[in-house]
Amino acid sequence: MRPIQKSNKLAEVCYEIRGPVPEKARQMEEEGHKITKLNIGNLAVFGFDPPDEIVQDMKINLSNAAGYTDSKGMFAPRKAVMHYTQGKNIRGVAIDDIYLGNGASELIVMSMNALLNNGDEVLVPAPDYPLWTAAVSLSGGKPVHYICDEQQDWYPDIEDMRRKITPNTRAIVVINPNNPTGALYPVELLLQIIELARQHDLIIYADEIYDKVLYDGAQHVSIASLADDLLFVTFNGLSKNYRACGYRSGWMVVSGEKSHAKDYIEGLNMLASMRLCANAPGQFAIQTALGGYQSIDDLVAPGGRLLKQRDLAYQLLSEIPGVSVVKPKAALYMFPRLDPKIYPIADDQQFAYELLAETKVLIVQGSGFNWIAPDHFRVVFLPNSDDMVEAFGRMAKFMESYRKRHGASF
After folding, report:
1. pTM recorded for the entire structure
2. Which domains does the chain have, with CATH numbers?
3. Distance (Å) of CA 98 to CA 69, 80, 92, 123, 399
4. Exposure winner among 51, 53, 64, 192, fewest CB in 10 A?
């Protein structure tokens, strides 16, 4: 029989967070090995539970969740999102500008599907959250990666961004707070991105899913709050701030200058209708989450579990010879660098395989985030302190062995 091939549109798509190395980890688990999973920000498995009031509200309303909702979502949660955007100083947002989705991920793909024709280009950060690159590619577009500069706290390189704009460029993606680096962008930088978009008539897509996971008193500013003369599309949800990944409850907000985007918005409405609606139980969680006690503030405050674990992970990684890491100001991740003179890595996926096989610790290689060289990897700092000490201790021993095997000295 003729082989059935996957679509050519998948040629440029990778999602290594759940790729071949995690598949090997799954096989090892089936063989009885205990794997420490530092590869994915799945908070619940590490004991970070959603607020009880969200869970109770979903239970109470479950009997009312069997029918389809409005294709954009129920009125009450969308109104709660509208108030949330007002609190973020994003002006001019009405109920009709808000779309609820099965997580922000669904809406990211929808937003690209509605925009891109074959050959259109979108500026995406490197490193990025790989769904963005995949969504652009699957929509027929070309992801063009602008560099974020590790020497400048992982801030986007504005001049690199400028050089990569062509007549085919349609939009700029800004992931702030950033996954995988944990960077948080200052207002001055956001204004530079806005000016670049203004000069070239570009849309700004803002992924702000970690906007409450902030450390050391840091404050997040939504880029859409800083201008009214551009089109902004902002994404957020319950997965991270409210530890509700599995509820698949997110939202997308269209703001700024919309008069020239009527056709695009019609496309968004069409796609929202085609998927009928987002899951109703997850929608019932939104109003309670946004209006309730913000327990994330306790987790990131001095003495809070997330802050303590960030500091511990930073300390443990920094103590490994040849490993350097920018201390994250936000989010749940670190993106350490392996000095190429000490760790001569040609294939970072193979490096992740070897680390997994020898230590039972699962990471994601930097190329999985479209980074340009095989010299980085991403870890989460979600396991409890004892488990992190154990995991990073095994990692340090592996690194020592790796240096010896490859004749590198420190």
Report:
1. 0.95
2. 8-49+298-406 (3.90.1150.10), 52-294 (3.40.640.10)
3. 14, 10, 12, 24, 48
4. 64
